[in-house]
Amino acid sequence: MQSQNNGRCDIGQAFSKESTIVWDAWGNCKPEPGSLDQTCLGTQSRNGKEVDKKGEEIRSFTETRNCLLTTDVVDGGYTIWGEWDDCSYKCYETTSRYRTCHDPTPCNGGNDCSDLGRDTLTKDCGPAAGQWTEWGSWSNCHMPLGVSGYGTGIHERYRDCTDPSPICGGDYCIGNNEMNENCRGKSMLS
């Protein structure tokens, strides 16, 4: 609510017959949490309260509005490329990856990213061979049956063909998924 006094508008207070609304000053302009734009547009808020004729508070509230984080002219820049979309469920179609013009966001008439190249890349999905994960840790040293005391045994480690898994009919990883080596150990029999 705003009132007119001799043609002037009083922004700090609004009046009615029964109550008055009093506003605090607007707070600082801050980037909006979760927004891609952290350099140009933000929000600011202020608190208000409605008071009766006796000055007692009836209710309080907050008002928020958009604001500029800077008055400078800022040219936009691209973010890094995102990951490729998953091809495993759309063999022989296409996949894409994207980037956005928010590093920084163009502001106050600054150039957008159109002169900096594309914001979307596409490629065909098709057979893709699997790749091995890193080798796992070595197992404990296993001694042959019947050996007592210290001796030579075998331990092993494994890897999986899941980094990525073969898709769309692509080849399984080349090589073995298991590695064995001799090791020195002590038999549990002694």
Automatic annotation (TrEMBL):
| Localization annotation | Secreted
The UniProt transmembrane annotation reads none
Task: List, alphabetically, the InterPro entries matched.
Answer: Compl_asym_regulator (IPR052065), TSP1_rpt (IPR000884), TSP1_rpt_sf (IPR036383)
What keywords does the record list, in alphabetical order?
Disulfide bond, Repeat, Secreted, Signal
Where, if anywhere, are coiled coils annotated?
Answer: none
Protein name as catalogued? HMCN
What is the organism field in this record? Mytilus coruscus (Sea mussel)
Q: What is the lineage of its organism?
A: Eukaryota, Metazoa, Spiralia, Lophotrochozoa, Mollusca
